[in-house]
Amino acid sequence: MWVFNVVGYGNYRYFLLTVLQLWFASVFGFAETIGPYLTQRERWIALNATRGSTTLADGGDAAAAAAAQETETLWQLLVLCVVCIVVIGHFAGWHVWHCVMNGRTTIEAYRRAAMAARGDATALHPMDNPYSWGSLSANWSRYFGDRNFAAAL
User: Does 143 score more than 80 pLDDT?
Assistant: First the structure.
């Protein structure tokens, strides 16, 4: 019930922009992490290949251990970024499709799904929606103004 009360028609634009910015930040984090991960992984592989020829006095094992630790940390960060991209992307996509493109509020989207689950025949017909402005572009303009997509973000 908390989400139904906090995200209202008047502040929906700002909520959706925040979710989209979180998604873009996750994509940016992934893009910034993949390069160092691949570089560090190659360094770790190279150190492991020469591990037999180096001794502890040369610092070979310590360097390999440090490279392994850094590679593991970067791998965990990559996994976290991918999980955030998938979860936040699904959340943002659901809100863009149901609320912006179809002009439904969150409550109306859930109500329609519940009606369909009960077998109510009216769930299959288009709903009379007071928040829909008739077309996808009109709904988009209502939420974000008449500017283009890049200017809205």
Answer: no
C-alpha separations of 8 from 11, 90, 96, 99, 144 in Å: 6, 20, 15, 11, 15
Tokens of 136: 């996808």
Q: Read off the pLDDT of residues 59-99 as tens digits, 9 standing for 90 and up.
A: 557 777 777 888 888 999 999 999 999 999 998 888 888 77
C-beta atoms surrounding 82 within 10 Å: 13
The sign of the CA dihedral 64, 44, 26, 3 is negative
Distance CA 3, CA 74 (A): 34
pTM exceeds cut of 0.90: no
Task: Find the distance separating the first CA and the last CA of the chain, reported in whole Å.
Answer: 28
Main-chain dihedrals φ then ψ at residue 4, nearest 5 degrees: -60, -30
d(C-alpha 39, C-alpha 46), whole Å: 11
Residue 15 burial (CB count, 10 A): 15
Q: Is the pLDDT assigned to residue 119 strictly greater than 50?
A: yes
